[in-house]
Amino acid sequence: MEAKAKKLLSKVPEITIYFWIIKILCTTVGETAADYLNMTLGFGLTNTTYFMGAILIAMLVWQFRLRKYVPTVYWLVVVLLSIVGTLITDNLTDRMGVPLIYSTIGFSVALAVTFYAWYKSEGTLSIHSINTFKREAYYWLTILFTFALGTASGDLIAEQFGVGYFASIILFAALIGVITLAHYKFRLNSVLAFWLAYILTRPLGASIGDFMSQPNDAGGLGLGTIVTSVIFLVAIVILVIYLTITRADAPKGVKAEV
After folding, report:
1. What is the mean pLDDT of the segment spanning 36-47?
2. Which residue has the higher pLDDT, 1 or 9?
3. What tens digit of pLDDT does each residue of 110-149 get?
4. Is 138 within 8 Å of 122 (Cβ atoms)?
5. From the CA atom positions of the chain, what is the Rg in Å?
6. Cβ–Cβ < 8 Å for 87, 41
7. 218 FRET partner, CA 20 to 30 A, in 3, 105, 211, 249?
8. Residue 47 phi/psi, 5° resolution?
9. Is 11:66 a contact under the CB 8 Å cutoff?
């Protein structure tokens, strides 16, 4: 039977300024919300991980069943992945005693292997091609590893290396700026530039979250995890409502062979 071209809708948003703003907000919430549930409410790492993991699985099932990009569902999954990615790293560090340097190396390898398998299977790493179940599965697995890696590397640099939260914010923001300049000025491959920037937004967001929530004597502003989480959650909700109404980041249809 001859294959026919069928127009399918991408399951992820267009890359706009809103995408990057909400992504950084989500990464910050992931850092502070995990700390809030684990320490402030006293759920503990194990219970918090099981609870948030179950919610994430339920939301992923919902996301996979959708036939198009839905802002509320998509960004809720990103927030949950951010929280679970943080919890994975925290479990390795706090419960199992794995040094942050090993976690950083391990998640870097896991992310590289995922990218390799994705490209080997599909021939592209472009998020504009997320229009099949397999590609979406690779996409969300990649996102999970970027969050876990970002948490480990962010904590490694800010805390273990003694760089500090504010200096880490400047460092990661500067690296993202260099990548952006390399893309627009020196024509760095757009897919490579996207994923490099995406990976770096996680430690950037984690550093912002820690800087705002941690006490003054630890190098933070002392706002606490509750206030910090609420501030960023409200910002995410406002932006997602705006995008739902305006469809400003609605993906364009793409063609795929079926």
Report:
1. 78
2. 9
3. 999 999 999 999 999 988 888 889 999 999 999 999 999 9
4. yes
5. 18
6. no
7. 105
8. -65, -40
9. yes
DSSP code string of the chain: ----EEEEE-SS----HHHHHHHHHHHHHHHHHHHIIIIIS--HHHHHHHHHHHHHHHHHHHHHH-SS--HHHHHHHHHHHHHHHHHHHHIIIIIS---HHHHHHHHHHHHHHHHHHHHHHHS---GGG--SHHHHHHHHHHHHHHHHHHHHHHHIIIIIS---HHHHHHHHHHHHHHHHHHHHHH---HHHHHHHHHHHHHHHHHHHHHHHHS-GGGTS---HHHHHHHHHHHHHHHHHHHHHHH-TTPPPEEEEE-
Note the pLDDT tens digit of each residue in 148-207: 998 888 888 988 888 888 999 999 999 999 999 999 999 899 999 999 999 999 889 888
The pair of three-digit structure tokens given for residue 76, joined into one six-digit string: 């809720």
| Across 75-89, average pLDDT | 91
Q: Side chain identity at 256, as an amino acid letter?
A: A
Q: Which residue has the tokens 């949950």?
A: 80
